[in-house]
Design goal:
single chain, alpha+beta, 2 domains, 8 helices, 7 strands, globular
């Protein structure tokens, strides 16, 4: 279902020259084929929903790191960033896909050129967290560039989730289908409010002003007021975000 929805949305966009990043649920051979056919490149997150391929890539990188990539072609980049009372170290390794000795169903991944491993260690004020992720990409073996594309994807997700939690109180509704329904409405509202540039205000301030102008004081009615005021042409961008699909301009990387 999600794969069909993502493909239908991508068909509506001019993707030529862009890099498409998608989370693990959208890592499908048909989506990869469509992205390539529309003149774009992809960076697809690889997780255990592709168990054979995931295990093959994971074991290959683990063995390569143990031998310091002896005799292998690869590219590497490391970054350290600090801010918001935390420090994050990221390491990116990239290898050409043919070097892995025949990936599982490799021929079905249109345009596949490289596989990527990203290791993240975050130093928070009260804990240290670690995470390792793998990616399939149609881009060549360039760790710095791929690291930026992946970082952009994470940045978009983190910003959206922060606004949902802080501005709209996304964790306050728990009954039945209400969380899913209100998530859809909130993300639509956020997408619309981000497009309103006539006033240099925060998302929360814009939302409050919208409710005041409509003279709606009930919380649920105010949510609908925000939605109706800004609905316009923003549904496509919102639905792409819900699907975990992000379109990155190649020039920004």
């Amino acid at each position: 279902m999600r794969s069909r929805r993502s493909r239908a949305l991508l068909e509506l966009l001019d993707l030529s020259g862009c890099i498409i990043t998608i989370d693990a649920m959208g890592t499908q051979t048909k989506i990869a084929t469509q992205i390539i056919s529309q003149g774009a490149d992809y960076v697809l997150c690889l997780k255990a929903n592709h168990p054979t391929l995931y295990q093959q890539v994971k074991e290959t990188f683990e063995q390569a790191i143990e031998t310091n990539f002896e005799g292998l072609e690869f590219d590497y980049d490391q970054r350290v960033e600090a801010g918001h009372h935390r420090r994050e170290m990221r390491k990116v390794w990239v290898m050409p896909a043919p070097q892995l000795g025949g990936l599982y169903k490799e021929s079905q991944w249109a345009g596949l050129q490289s596989v990527v491993m990203v290791y993240r260690r975050r130093y928070l004020w009260n804990q240290v967290t670690e995470e390792t992720q793998f990616f399939l990409t149609s881009l060549p073996c360039n760790a710095q560039r791929l690291g930026r594309a992946i970082r952009c994807h994470w940045g978009i997700e983190n910003q959206l989730h922060w606004v949902l939690d802080v501005t709209f109180g996304a964790k306050r509704i728990h009954r039945g289908h209400a969380p899913e329904n209100f998530t859809l409405l909130r993300r639509l509202a956020i997408s619309a409010l981000n497009q309103e540039t006539s006033s240099p205000r925060s998302i929360g301030q814009k939302s409050s002003l919208c409710g005041d102008e409509l003279k709606l004081h009930d919380e649920s009615a105010c949510q609908c007021g925000r939605l109706l005021t800004y609905y316009g042409s923003f549904f496509l961008a919102l639905t792409l975000a819900i699907s975990g699909v992000y379109v990155l301009q190649r020039s920004l990387l």
